[in-house]
Amino acid sequence: MSMKGQVALVTGASRGIGKAIAQALVAEGATVIGTATTANGAEAISTYLAENGKGMVLNVAESESINSVIEAITAEYGQLDILVNNAGITRDNLLMRMKEDEWDDVLNTNLKSVFRLSKAVMRGMMKRRNGRIINISSVVGTTGNPGQANYCAAKAGLVGFTKSLAKEIAARGITVNCVAPGFIDTDMTQSLTEEQKQAIFTNIPAARLGQPEEIAAAVVFLASAGAAYITGETIHVNGGMAMV
Amino acid sequence: MSTIEERVKKIIVEQLGVKEEEVKPEASFENDLGADSLDTVELVMALEEEFETEIPDEEAEKIKTVQAAIDYVTNHADD
User: Fold this and answer.
1) Cβ distance of B38 and A127 shorter than 8 Å
2) Which residues form the Carrier domain (chain B) (predicted)?
3) Are B45 and A123 an interchain contact pair (Cβ–Cβ within 8 Å)?
4) Residue ranges per structural domain of chain B
């Protein structure tokens, strides 16, 4: 229970990797606020977090929504120690067919949101000389993936963002890191076609999908006191699929 | 009750870890008082809290000396 008294915000926490992260942080003793885009999603989060936190509605693509959620958290819990930028979407298409909307939606939700959220939480973290920002990137941000030029651009963008912010605020006791999942057993990968899955499996030495809990374990480590000297780093959790 | 000037100087001393006698009106945060760009951002944050005001980014960028900070707060004290 090393995170007792700490408050964490996990975006996109209603299911999949986000839910596993929220539960793992709770298991360490943290209070967790999990966000979802719908009221139903937020309610589901409140249910599984029970007395260890609550769900809130947040559209990470909207600045105002972000500011009101951060204000509400600060008012109710007084501080925010850990930010996990997990919320993400896919709008897959071959570039030849990709609409500008598909590009913008993915960049806005997966990359610009991290700029917005990080900025919103930084004042408090700087004042307390302590904080953890953990961005969920992806193996495809490093390897590329046909049909995902928008998603890969956003996920690679997170890595550059992470390194820059890490350098800016390291002296203030705040670390900024990425966890880059490989192919994990979630709704997002279940929407892949059988052909895509087969192609992916041949490239995973571990010969299986990863579990959301295996991503959460890396996030918990980066959020822990023991990881205070790790910043600007990306931890790849991908069963050997890509060794960087 | 301290004057605005005294309160501003006190914040500068605390934020930048400098001696009170170094905080002369013409002193530049970055050139004379050893602040880096993030220190000046934090200094502006501290001024905002002390004087319960919000300093817009374009104004904050102009606050580079002790006198500029005192002037800004003085001019916006009754807003």
Assistant:
1) no
2) 2-77
3) yes
4) 4-75
A118 CA: distance to closest CA in chain B (Å): 15
3-state secondary structure of A221: helix
Chain A CB within 8 Å of residue B57 CB: no
Give yes or no: B36 in active site.
Answer: yes
Q: Which CATH number fits domain B4-75: 3.40.50.150, 3.40.50.2300, 1.10.1200.10, 1.10.8.80?
A: 1.10.1200.10
A158-178: per-residue pLDDT in tens? 999 999 999 999 999 999 999
- Beta-strand ranges (E) seen in chain A are 7-10, 31-36, 53-57, 82-85, 131-136, 174-181, 234-237
Question: What pTM does this model have?
Answer: 0.92
Q: Would you call B24 helix, strand, or coil by DSSP?
A: coil
Cβ-proximal residues to A132 (8 Å cutoff; 6+ apart), any chain:
A81, A82, A83, A174, A175, A222, A223, A227
- Type of residue at A148: Q
Under a CB-based contact definition with an 8 Å cutoff, are residues B15 and B40 in contact?
no
Mean pLDDT computed over every residue of chain A:
95
